[in-house]
Amino acid sequence: MKKLIIVALAAGSLGACTAREENTATGALIGAGTGAVIGGLATGRAGGAAAGAAIGGVGGAIIGNATTRDRVCVGRDEWGRRVSYAC
């Protein structure tokens, strides 16, 4: 079981290109795992674990995406004014 968790976390982090994608994937993995455990313990059935994993995965992805800060760079325009832009 430990090997499966390590492989899942490694695969999730390799599939991400940006910090936002990495945090979204990590949040989804953590949420799905936690939801599966809670759903399985609460219902005692595989269906409850599957539903918990689905709900937890979506919730974790939303939270992971929402808590990631946008990267902002600061530069100067052609008149020397300071401007901010996404980078």
From TrEMBL:
Annotated signal sequence range: 1-19
Transmembrane domains' residue ranges: none
Pfam name, any one: Gly-zipper_Omp
Span of domain Glycine zipper: 26-70
Alphabetical UniProt keywords: Signal
Protein's name in the database: Glycine zipper domain-containing protein
